[in-house]
């Protein structure tokens, strides 16, 4: 589903520049549940932001479903992201002045979808995530775990092939974290390819592959024990 070839990312720092991703080569197959681990500041979020097409200041090749993202302009990348990718954040990133229902409807508002189809999809999603009773509440009226449930509902309502999550349980108690991970596992079993960043070995255990990033280099891949460490 994804091929990254020699992905590099740097930031300007004072006089020079700091490299945060170094020659990342990574293939992700459809149906995988991949975990990115590594120390703080290693480049994990930077890598996820490249995959999410939130960042467009990188070098190298990124193929998504055989489409050359690296050759696309900003508008084309936004289209590809909208069609294929859902994103979940550590701090949920819900809009505080919208209700649960309005928050999960948001990705559909960018699509040209007939009103009744859109309402049906929202109703189905509320039902599927068992948040029908919360639909008219605002994020501040929910627990962290419930907010993340809404964040995931919003991320998958447009049925993305790829679900990306940056420390999705980082602000949650372990019981809530387990529920969120079980939900990820269920989505993965239903065919969604998942990439998560986490510090948690427990969370990693829900996936089927782990890579490690250190100082911007990919230093370990459980699917490729022979990976040479260039760092
Ligand atoms: P991780 O997710 O592994 O903690 P990040 O990808 O967030 O690491 O960050 C990698 C490095 O890049 C860090 O040193 C971080 O401070 C730096 N960095 C990330 N984003 C920016 C930015 N927008 N401007 C400058 N430096 C950044
Ligand atoms: P969340 O908790 O929702 O995942 P964060 O609070 O970690 O989000 O914020 C991450 C954002 O901050 C990213 O867009 C990342 O690129 C940016 N960032 C991380 N480190 C730095 C840095 N050193 N300088 C500037 N921006 C940074």
TrEMBL record:
Domain ABC transporter, residue spans: 2-231
GO molecular function: ATP binding; ATP hydrolysis activity; transmembrane transporter activity
Organism superkingdom: Bacteria
Keywords from the UniProt entry: ATP-binding, Lipoprotein, Nucleotide-binding, Transport
The keyword Transport appears for this protein: yes
Alphabetical list of SUPFAM superfamilies matching this protein: P-loop containing nucleoside triphosphate hydrolases (SSF52540)
Family named by the database record: Belongs to the ABC transporter superfamily. Macrolide exporter (TC 3.A.1.122) family.
PANTHER family reported in the protein's UniProt record: ABC TRANSPORTER ABCH.1, IMPORT ATP-BINDING PROTEIN
Name recorded for this polypeptide: ABC-type lipoprotein export system ATPase subunit
UniProt organism field: Silvibacterium bohemicum
